[in-house]
Here is the input.
Amino acid sequence: MAKLFFCVKKNVYLCNEEYCKYKIIMTLREVARLLNGQVLLGENRLDEEVTMGFASDLMSEVLTLKDTPMLITGLCNMQTIRTCDMANLEYLVIVRNKKPTEEMLELAQESDMVVITSEYSMFKACGILYADGILPLY
Amino acid sequence: MHLEYTVVEGDFVNAGTASSSVKKALKQLNVSPQVVKRVVVALYEAEVNAIAHAYGGKVLVDIDSDKIKMVVADKGPGIPDIALAMQEGYSTARPEVRDMGFGAGMGLPNMQKNVDKLNVSSEVGVGTTVEMVVNFV
Ligand SMILES: Nc1ncnc2c1ncn2[C@@H]1O[C@H](COP(=O)(O)OP(=O)(O)OP(=O)(O)O)[C@@H](O)[C@H]1O
Ligand SMILES: [Mg+2]
Here is the structure.
């Protein structure tokens, strides 16, 4: 049976295909705008679309994911970037107004990542993205 | 191909250097992305463990045409009860390690899930050796 996702915008349950059909998919540009965010890396990729999101400060949890969602995290150190590299995660949102170091950005650049920072709390950032249709992994 | 790396106790900035380099090597050899991910996730977890729980050590990697063999050998306190350490959620990680985003007790179980062969041997007060094999097909 198809997995159903609750679409907050339409107040209905939709299966994944319908979700895509309704173009609830968001671009990274939209993600940055919604989070009042700053794009630190990957300006050239902002028209790419995001469907799935995952939020965690625990890197070993992130390393168990089979999919490659956008990662929303409050952890801002070299391990955040390394974890994304190992897990093939290319879209990173860092919340709680934490600023990555030059060294982190250099490493992120090597794997062609998009890095967006936001001053919002994890809860607020996730709430906004969820309400606007970013899907959870489970 | 044989690769060797040294990991240093508490050196979280460089944790993952070995895994990154192995990732590049495997990509160049055209190993499928799914297999590459399994290899580097497992190796990265082992690398972080040697840095977080032990006093550093060595990473030895051998890449053949059909498989990769990885050995992470550290000098450290060792693991008194390996079966317990393998359980999801078991962790003795220090606060500094948790601040780095680790210490969920998920590393060893995740290595087990990602590799085709895992062997953990340890002597208390001496160190721990983690051997992993991933087949390419
Ligand atoms: N190389 C090692 N030397 C000594 N003890 C270890 C070593 N590797 C693992 N352990 C012990 O086994 C426990 C479980 O390891 P595991 O990797 O599963 O979880 P963790 O490292 O605590 O957290 P996570 O991997 O989720 O960040 C550790 O907390 C530690 O007590
Ligand atoms: Mg671990």
User: Anything to note?
Assistant: The radius of gyration of chain A is 14 Å. The domain at 26-136 of chain A is CATH 3.40.1390.20 (Udp-n-acetylmuramoylalanyl-d-glutamate--2,6- Diaminopimelate Ligase; Chain: A, domain 1).
